[in-house]
Amino acid sequence: MKGEFLLEIGTEEIPASFIPPATQSFCELFGRLLDNARISYSSQEWYATPRRLIFRALDVAPVQSSVEIEKTGPAKSAAFDEHGNPTKAAEGFARSQGVNVKDLLIVSTSKGEQVAVRKREEGRPTVEVLSEELPVLLEKISFPKTMRWMGLDVRFARPVHWIVALFEGQVIPFSFGNIQTGNSTRGHRFTNPGNFAVSGFDQFRDSLENHGVVIDPGRRRSEISRLVQELAASKGLKVFEEPDLLDEITYLVESPYPVMGEFSADFLELPASILITCMKKHQRYFSVQDDGGRITNRFIAVNNTPVQDPQMSLRGHQRVLKARLEDARFYFREDRKVPLMERLEALKGVVFHSKLGTAHEKVERFTELAMMLAKKLAPDKVDVVKHASLLCKCDLETGIVYEFPELQGIIGSYYAKMDGEPEEVSTAVREHYLPAFAGDSLPKGIVGSLVSIADRMDTIAGCFSVGLIPTGAADPYGLRRNALGIIQILMNLDRPVDLPWLIREAVKLIGDKRTRGLSEVEADVLEFFRTRFVNFHTSREFSLDVVEAVVRARFDDVVDARRRVEALNQWKMRPDFDSIMIGFKRVVNILKNVEPTECSPDLFQEESEKQLFSKFQEVAAQSAPLIDSGNYAKALELMTELKAPIDTLFDKVMVMVEDEQLRNNRLGLLRKIADFFIQIADFSFIGSTAK
């Protein structure tokens, strides 16, 4: 009868950011363990609080599956002499496998005939297997950092204080460090710290809740959100939406107890972004707004215990927050003594990278690049783009950004506005950092978009120019994220940009700091962008063969490539697509490793050649303006008209005839058609739609 597995690892408080990845890591490891051990199960669940990681598996088999195993030994020629008698090699192999020589088999393998033995390996009890494997597995759980304690020879995120390990209520015996498993768990550290026995998950969950612990993070998150919103609403206020803060607090408490406090209204002179950051990043407090969306001098803290004296608790929260806000106000007032643009010179003392110079040199480079872009895409904005570029990194030299690095760009935008800079400029200072992460919003204005592209391209070109190229999973300078950001911004702008030109100009601006050849760097960066483009689109339900077909044909304009991907992806959904591709691929494939040749209509002998050439000229003429305007969907529909004459040519005409002139002429005709196809995609990369 299948049963339930329950594991609880009780620890000192684990950092909130460690917990979700660790639970996923365990589930992957445990699933692999069961699969490799031939122990069936139906599903896994995980739960977690700051002090405990909990795992449950359902319908776990009580015994491993039995298996027939075959062990091969020496070659037949070495195991038996010419009379068929076993040699010492055969006898030794049989002895090592615990069988009689007469039980040996002869099997054919890739190495020839070998002696072998087949045995049935009976399954062991699941409890016995897990007793051996779980201690090893616990040390494999992935954490950003681990530690040792008490001189023990094990590592974990934090010291382990107890372990519950049960299979159908039976303890799975093993030790981890100085902890022996059992069936005893612990309640909330402060409100119900005692131990109590558990026998299964339902009783375990309910008993812990009775002892002040809500193990389900989803329930805790919902409860925190509800209580915080209700507390704010009781004062006629609303909480700022902070999903990431809500996620963090979920793993900071085992039961939530929110309280509302306030700080001096004098601090409201600070920008809302500074106030929110002080409360969120340093104190994990929710900021509160009025009905008009204006920040108030209230905050909500979520405690891990019920408060006996709310005022004393609030005084503690308010005292700590006041110190943070006073620091922020000091930096803010000091910052305002110097206009933002006057801080540009100070960037000469900030090293961007030892091989690429100072932040000031970087600003000079990408300002030049942004102006080049502006001349092509927004000629009336060149001066605005130049000014925004020079201004956008100046807040790196402010006290607020030194204290709160996450506010770079945001505080620069605020200071620019206070200095009287145009709205377009102050907005660009903030937007040029977008997108900051996967799924983040993109710059809305053309100025911020161009500055962002130039800044990111300078980083990529600079790093590639001095050999700082991402390898494997390592990308310390965020080049993949920067390339993806450029691709998304270009697609959002929906304007043509010559990508090889942009890369070339960026690399040239690196100047004498470049340690690699210009053409080599350009080629590497273009391929880097091509890979990012493919990965981005295949992650968004475009098939790999379609995207590869497009970028292998040509990849010089991100917007144009995107249009071709969309058109080809839609065209591939035609019910007759596979039959169309047969002839199209034959055109492409027959030309592989063939030198280009010309085509003369005067040399056509067969009617099918003449018909194909005539139809090709008609379709090419009609498609030319469509391709020029980016209407690839309509161009592909016209290309479909070539299917019948192409199929007829291959059915009735031998292309690779012995007559060299005739053969080259026919190949020349097919070359014209292939060159026509390649304006949209390399069809040789397209796969079948057949299931």
Automatic annotation (TrEMBL):
Would the keyword DNA repair be found if you checked this record's keyword annotation? no
Q: Which SUPFAM superfamilies match?
A: HD-domain/PDEase-like
Q: Name one GO biological process term.
A: glycyl-tRNA aminoacylation
Task: Tell me the compartments it is located in.
Answer: Cytoplasm
UniProt domain DALR anticodon binding: residue ranges:
584-675
What's one GO-annotated cellular component?
cytosol
Q: What is its main location?
A: cytoplasm
Pfam families reported in the protein's UniProt record? DALR_1, tRNA_synt_2f
UniProt keyword annotations, A-Z = Aminoacyl-tRNA synthetase, ATP-binding, Cytoplasm, Ligase, Nucleotide-binding, Protein biosynthesis
Record carries keyword Aminoacyl-tRNA synthetase:
yes
Question: What Enzyme Commission number(s) appear in the record?
Answer: 6.1.1.14
The GO terms this record gives for MF are: arginine-tRNA ligase activity; ATP binding; glycine-tRNA ligase activity
Reaction it catalyzes: tRNA(Gly) + glycine + ATP = glycyl-tRNA(Gly) + AMP + diphosphate
What interactions and quaternary structure are annotated? Tetramer of two alpha and two beta subunits.
The family assignment reads: Belongs to the class-II aminoacyl-tRNA synthetase family.
Q: What name does the UniProt record give this protein?
A: Glycine--tRNA ligase beta subunit
Tell me the organism. Desulfomonile tiedjei (strain ATCC 49306 / DSM 6799 / DCB-1)
Q: Tell me the organism's taxonomic lineage.
A: Bacteria, Pseudomonadati, Thermodesulfobacteriota, Desulfomonilia, Desulfomonilales
